[in-house]
Design goal:
Layout: H1 22-26, H2 28-31, H3 50-64, H4 81-92, H5 97-110, H6 114-127, H7 145-155, H8 157-166, H9 168-175, H10 180-198, H11 203-220, H12 229-236, H13 241-253, H14 258-290
Length: 291
């Protein structure tokens, strides 16, 4: 299969608009940002800000109303062709996204450190793969780089299988998963560490800890705004339950803390609302089945 061509012509076609200058037509804020040399547009250059795009929409409307506009402005190019093509390709790959993500993850693992890449090369040599190329990661804005990544990774499938047994961190890396338990434990540990840092005898250490604690409190100190979902998994786990949350809050905020008491009550209230929501849905399904 031939390799797709990445370079796509995206030159805008615009006729002269009377005797107006470039600054008058496009606007000074866009003229100042124009490149000095013409380059071929690629998918990696398809980013556009909403403000800039809105300005071009207004520019297009002005050109259409201009008597000298060719074919009523239908030749004026508004969107990057590479950007549109990238959207089309991603839509076609949507059903295979899980498999593509798996390949992307193993490639990222190999290229994450020189040690892992060296170990992967040993696996390539051991399996007798003669291909001189190496695996490469794709770029989200380059429509054809996913194809190149998959094409390269396919040749090294045996090497990836060998790496699973040769590299101890390989299976550990892909066996990790983030759950509600880990989130709650990390949040509580970080708070205790920051609290200890603010009481340090070192002025610099205490200052840095205070700044970090201020940022922490901005997201986690307000009981009415913070997401209670990280506590639900702990409460519903028979190994912990609500009593573990209460014990942790005593360790974090102190025994008899007004904030801890209010947070516990807020968690109970949120959990009750979540239960009522699920119960309502279940009752509606039951009523439909019996009717």
């Amino acid at each position: 299969m031939g390799q797709p061509n990445q370079t796509i012509p995206t030159q805008s076609v615009m006729n002269e608009v009377g005797s107006a200058t470039t600054t008058e037509v496009v606007g000074p804020e866009l003229v100042n940002t124009q490149p000095t040399k013409k380059k071929k547009a690629s998918a990696s250059g398809s980013r556009q800000s909403s403000a800039c795009y809105d300005h071009f929409i207004r520019l297009h409307d002005d050109l259409v109303d201009t008597p000298t506009a060719t074919w009523d402005g239908k030749c004026f190019h508004m969107r990057c062709v590479a950007h549109i093509l990238n959207l089309v390709v991603n839509e076609g790959l949507k059903d295979k996204q899980l498999s593509i993500t798996s390949v992307r993850d193993v490639v990222r693992f190999v290229k994450s450190s020189p040690h892992r890449e060296a170990k992967f090369k040993e696996c390539i040599e051991f399996t007798g793969i003669t291909c001189k190329k190496l695996v490469c990661l794709d770029v989200s804005t380059n429509w054809n780089t996913t194809y190149l990544m998959l094409e390269a990774a396919e040749k090294f499938q045996d090497a990836f299988d060998k790496l699973e047994y040769e590299e101890s961190s390989y299976r550990e890396f892909f066996g990790k998963s983030v759950g509600l338990h880990s989130a709650f434990h990390q949040v509580s540990v970080v708070y205790c560490e920051l609290k200890q840092a603010t009481m340090s005898l070192s002025g610099v250490f205490a200052s840095v800890g205070g700044d970090m604690m201020e940022k922490y409190n901005r997201y986690w100190r307000c009981a009415t705004k913070m997401n209670k979902s990280i506590y639900f998994g702990i409460i519903l786990d028979s190994r912990y339950k609500l009593s573990y949350i209460e014990w942790t809050f005593k360790d974090m905020y102190g025994v008899g803390s007004v904030f801890a008491t209010g947070l516990i009550n807020s968690i109970k209230e949120s959990l009750q609302k979540l239960y009522d929501c699920y119960k309502q849905v279940d009752d509606q399904k039951h009523n439909i089945q019996t009717s």
